[in-house]
Amino acid sequence: MSTYDLHVTEADPARVVTVLPGSGYTAMAPLLWYARSALRDLGWTVRTLEWTSAPSFGSAREVYAEVLDGGDAPGGDALHLVVAKSLGTLAMPMAVRLGLPGVWLTPVLTGEQASDVRETAADLDEDHLLIGGTADPLWDGDLADGSEADVLEVENADHSLEVPGDRAENLAILDEVVSAIEEFAGSFGEE
């Protein structure tokens, strides 16, 4: 099984966000760095998973189960939001079963190993935000639009939600994505 660390920045115990990075796109990369910083600044307790060895699809699912539903998972009446990127979106089916709202950045919506993610994404409700780029081969805009989730589709953006060779556009995309995450998290109200 892959190993990981879980870093916690304490704030409001009634509002907890768990950040699940991809295998190559860590929580230090721009989308997750600024998303977790924004949520921390809004007073959320932030739990960030960091891989210490490369995960496989199977081991990642085991780790996500442990992090979302294990002994260290937020309990009681805490609002528990999941923010996941790429491989982290393999946690989507479990999060939905647990009734956890989620922000799903560049979800894995294609390929046989993620068929359960695709099926779950198709049935998401308004407690979820799907974000993907039209140039990402793992994104399915039609599937996302067919769900009841909020959807942010970024024109010409790849799996990193970037447009190659366009720094100004990439900074604008980053701002748009982080603003959408702040707005989405705010829709759950503040205690």
CATH superfamily: Alpha/Beta hydrolase fold, catalytic domain
Estimated radius of gyration: 15 Å
> Average pLDDT value?
94
Distance between the termini: 38 Å
Alpha-beta content class:
alpha/beta
| Percent of residues in helices | 25-40%
Provide the CATH topology.
Answer: Rossmann fold
Helix tally?
6
Domain unit count: 1
Please give the CATH architecture: 3-Layer(aba) Sandwich
CATH class: Alpha Beta
- Number of strand elements: 7
Question: How would a textbook summarize the main sheet?
Answer: 7 strands, mixed
Please give the structural blueprint:
Layout lengths: L3 E6 L2 E9 L9 H12 L2 E8 L5 H13 L9 E7 L6 H7 L3 E4 L9 H8 L5 E6 L7 H6 L3 E5 L12 H20 L5
Parallel strand pairs: 2-3, 2-4, 4-5, 5-6, 6-7
Antiparallel strand pairs: 1-3
Helix pairs in contact: 1-6
Organism: Promicromonospora iranensis
Protein name: Alpha/beta hydrolase
